[in-house]
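Alpha/beta hydrolase fold-5 domain-containing protein
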Amino acid sequence: MKILYLASFAVLQFHFCSSLSVEILKPNSTGPEAALVIVPGAYITGAAYKPLAEVLQKNSNLKLWVALLDGFFNKLPNPLQFPIVFNKAVNELLKAGYKGKKVFLAGHSLGGEVVALYGQKANHILDGVLLFASYITKNNELKEYPFPVLTISGDLDGLTRITRIVDTFEELQEDVKKDPEQKYKTPVIVMESINHGQFASGQLPKPVTDHDLNPEVSQSVAYNTIANYSNAFMVVVRNDTDTNVTEAENILEDGYTKTATMMQPLSKVKALDQNPEFTSHWTNTAQELVVSLKNITDVEFINYEDESLDILPKQLPVLSPSDYIKIESLTTLWMQPNPLDSTTSPLSPLQLKATMKSQEAVKKILPSSQFGIPASCKEVNQNAYELAFAKSSPMAKERYTSRGRRIIFNDDVSVSSEFQWVRSQLDLNYNQSGLYVTAARFHTGMSEPTKSYSGQNDCTLLSPFRAMEWIYIDSLKYTTSQIKSNTT
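Tokens:
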């Protein structure tokens, strides 16, 4: 029985390993030797990265060897097979004439996830890691990664969303404040007009084409842009005296600056509701619109965010002894559960569930003040979209205006009880014609039997960041499967 088991295991191991293959591309230039092993994305062949590899070699100041990996089970790179084929690649490089002791390791998309995981073990013979349209998952800090790591993607990537990469870039910005060298050790670069598929070539698989956005540059331009930053990263990491390290650092510096400019609108709008202060600044704006006081000089709007999903309204507003009015609101920030840190669906808040005071309640405290027409939840959500559009980059505005699907706001759906309010949600309906937004509204009069519920005007609000994510990404998607993947 033991012999049969061992024989079966040997057969399984043979089939598990025999499909794995490596293609070696020998260097065509001189300089210090380096090698790059490239892991493909899901359902993409290793050969699809040959055009990019050839541009990397042609433009490099290094004598760059490249190994293209292929043959993963079901065409899915995985951590079980990867160590086997990686060792095979290193051996093939040495057999072909590579004289170096370390290699760079790159992975595209799912291949990047496998590479990032493998690189977390510091006992490998790696110079550094390049994540093509991929990223180090959350709860793993950039500055703690064992090797230098480049995170690089395009702003038209429909799978590795810019709304996810903004988190990694913000992490880098904080690291750079303490150590400016981090922009060379762990650079995060987003390239303009390039999509997810342009790291590869040929007919891309349906999972990519279903989600990706249309690029705005040719494959040639994309390859040269990717190679420019990738080669600069490898030169800086190697720090060989025979290469122009200063020039390479300037290229990475330029990438950092351009990415910072690109990310600034996203970071600012995201921070309205996702911030260390646990304050929804947008709910404060919503409360102002709902109250519609003509003069708010002596009024302070205060918000508290809460993670509970069944919050009940508080006794609000309160009148301080100094006659300085404080109007408090409470917001529940609803996020889509995402334990795997995946990025094909929207990453912004599903809704801001806002408990606010009505205009009638404030009129009771300020009977002599002047008021305008109170905003409905629908009108507040329209304002969220208008803010997101106004804060978007000129490029994002042009793309949305010229080819984006519209966002449509339906009338509010009123709920009449505490139970209904607790269960209500912002309805986001993604379909072929656009994004349809319908808010729930819970309004109580001033003579409610439960005093704490008196004078409420509660709304399920659209996050400005969700509106911005629509403008930047989801409005530019057209196919049925793309739209289905965004349904929440």
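The radius of gyration is 27 Å.
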